[in-house]
Amino acid sequence: MALRVVDNATMVQQEREEDERTLEERQNEPLFLGITAHLKECWDAAKRAKKPIETIMLKGMRQRNGEYEPEKLSAIHSQGGSAIYMGITEVKCRAAESWLRDILLDTGTPPWDIPRWSTSI
Q1: Helices 88-104 and 30-65, interaxial angle, to 10°?
Q2: 35 near 61, Cβ under 8 Å?
Q3: How far is CA 68 from CA 63, 91, 92, in A?
Q4: Number of domains observed in the structure of the chain
Q5: Looking at the domain assignment, is residue 95 inside a domain?
Q6: For residue 5, is it within any domain?
Q7: Which residues of 59-91 are buried (b: 16+ CB within 10 A; e: fewer)?
C-alpha cells in the first residue's frame, strides 16, 4: 500500500473543484430553481410597481428644475418654438418649503401640541 503525498495548493484546488461541482448540482435542484423563479418574479413585480412612481417623481423634478419633458421639448423644437420654461413651480415649492419650515421648526410649541386656552375671560 502506497501513501499518496499531495501539497497544500493541489489539495485546496481539488476542494474548490469539488465545492463548485456540488454547488452547480445544488443549483439545479427543484427547490433552488423554485426559489430563484420566485425571487425573479418578486423583483420584476417591484420594478413594475416602481415605474409609475418614478415617472411622476422625474416629471416633478424636471418641472421644479425648469425643464420640459423630452417629448414636449422635441415637439416644441419641431414646431420652431421657444424652449423657455416659466419657472412658476420653483417659486411655489420654495413657498411651501418656507411654510413647512415655519410650522415644523418653530422654536415655540410643537405643531401637534394642543394650545392651553385661558379660562378667565
Answers
A1: 100
A2: no
A3: 7, 17, 17
A4: 1
A5: yes
A6: no
A7: eeebbeeeebeeeeeeeeeeeeeeeebeeeeee
Residue type, 62: R
* Grid coordinates of 36: 430563484
How many residues are given for the chain?
121
Q: Rounded to an integer, what distance in angstroms lies between the CA atom of residue 18 and that of residue 33?
A: 21
In tens, the pLDDT along 22-62 reads 877 777 788 888 898 999 999 999 999 999 999 999 999 99
Could you give the CA distance from residue 51 to residue 42 in angstroms, rounded to a whole number? Answer: 14
Cell triple for residue 12?
485546496
State how far the Cα of 116 lies from the Cα of 34, in Å rounded to an integer: 61
Q: Which residue blocks in the chain are alpha helix, DSSP H?
A: 8-27, 30-65, 70-79, 88-104
- Tell me, yes or no, whether 15 lies in a domain: yes
Q: By residue range, what is the domain housing residue 94?
A: 11-104
pTM: 0.52
CA pseudo-torsion sign 41, 42, 43, 49: positive
In tens, the pLDDT along 75-107 reads: 988 998 887 888 888 889 999 999 988 888 877
Residue type, 17: E
